[in-house]
């Protein structure tokens, strides 16, 4: 019986060594669109950068952390659409009311993968994705999908104060940059991104 336990542990270590996470196997560097989908689906939050509308910062870049989800956890749960749960009371949302353009960065640094491989978050092998586009409120037909995606990963959201007038939104992707290997950024089109599975 001890031998079986050793084999299981050895197998798990082998899977981690070749790039397996709780959500599947990390795509190879030549599959940039799949990598972008994979990283987003494995991340629970990202850094959203807006152009500030705040007094004293007007027009300056302003980055803030937001919880997000493209679908329930698991290898088959991701739509590729970054959904967010927002309120007009939030400072970055006030920026977006003036200019909805933004960028969103997600990184495998928030998962155990990079630490297990001793990759610094700035190391290209600790893949990160930069999305550019705009934030839009979801329509009624998409609200159920957004709610399921977000509340399945962030159950605390359901208990947030109702008087904050929370709403579901999505990041409408127009440009994608992938940094997952040495040699610089790779450009992925939204069409390529949505045509693959993570």
Q: Tell me, rounded to a whole number, the average pLDDT.
A: 90
Derived from helix and strand composition plus strand pairing, the structural class reads alpha+beta
Low-confidence runs (pLDDT<50, min 5 residues)? 1-18
Shape: globular
Strand fraction: 25-35%
CATH architecture: Roll
| CATH-level-4 superfamily name | Electron Transport, Fmn-binding Protein, Chain A
CATH secondary-structure class:
Mainly Beta
Rg calculated over all Cα atoms: 18 Å
Tell me the helix content: 25-40%
Q: Major sheet: size, sense and barrel closure?
A: 7 strands, antiparallel
**N-to-C series of helices and strands:** HEEHEEEHEHEHEEH
Tally the helices: what do you get? 6
> Kindly, what is the distance between the CA atoms of the first and last residues, rounded to a whole number of angstroms?
36 Å
User: What oligomerization state is this entry in?
Assistant: single chain
DSSP strand count: 9
Tally the structural domains: 1
CATH topology: Pnp Oxidase, Chain A
Domain CREG-like beta-barrel: 27-195
InterPro entries: CREG, CREG_beta-barrel, Split_barrel_FMN-bd
Protein name: CREG1 protein
Subcellular location: Secreted
What do these coordinates show?
Keywords: Glycoprotein, Secreted, Signal. This is CREG1 protein. Residues 1-22 form the signal peptide. It contains six helices and nine strands, in the order αββαβββαβαβαββα. It has one domain (32-195): Pnp Oxidase, Chain A (Roll). Helix content is 30%, strand content 28%. The longest helix is centred in the first third of the chain and has 16 residues, at 2-17. The strands form two sheets. Strands 3, 4, 5, 6, 7, 8 and 9 form a seven-stranded antiparallel beta sheet that branches. The two termini are 36 Å apart. It has helices spanning 2-17, 32-42, 91-98, 112-116, 140-153, 190-195, and strands at 20-21, 24-25, 45-51, 61-67, 83-86, 101-107, 128-137, 167-179, 186-188. With 198 residues, the protein is of the alpha+beta class. β8 and β9 (186-188) form a beta hairpin. The model is unreliable at 1-18 (pLDDT under 50).
């Amino acid at each position: 019986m001890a031998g079986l336990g050793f084999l299981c542990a050895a197998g798990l270590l082998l899977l981690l060594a070749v790039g397996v996470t709780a959500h599947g196997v990390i795509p190879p560097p030549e599959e940039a669109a799949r990598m972008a989908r994979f990283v987003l689906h494995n991340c629970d939050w990202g850094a959203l950068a807006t152009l500030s509308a705040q007094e004293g910062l007007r027009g300056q870049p302003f980055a803030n952390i937001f919880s997000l989800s493209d679908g329930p956890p698991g290898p088959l749960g991701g739509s590729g659409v970054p959904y967010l749960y927002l309120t007009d009371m939030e400072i970055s949302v006030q920026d977006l009311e003036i200019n909805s353009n933004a960028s969103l960065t997600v990184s495998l640094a928030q998962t155990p993968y990079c630490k297990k491989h001793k990759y610094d978050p700035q190391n290209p092998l600790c893949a990160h994705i930069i999305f550019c586009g705009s934030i839009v409120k979801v329509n009624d037909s998409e609200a159920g999908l957004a709610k399921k995606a977000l509340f399945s990963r962030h159950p605390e959201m359901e208990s947030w104060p109702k008087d904050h007038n929370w709403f579901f939104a999505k990041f409408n992707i127009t440009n994608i940059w992938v940094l997952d290997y040495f040699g610089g950024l790779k450009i992925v089109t939204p069409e390529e991104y949505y045509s693959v599975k993570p």
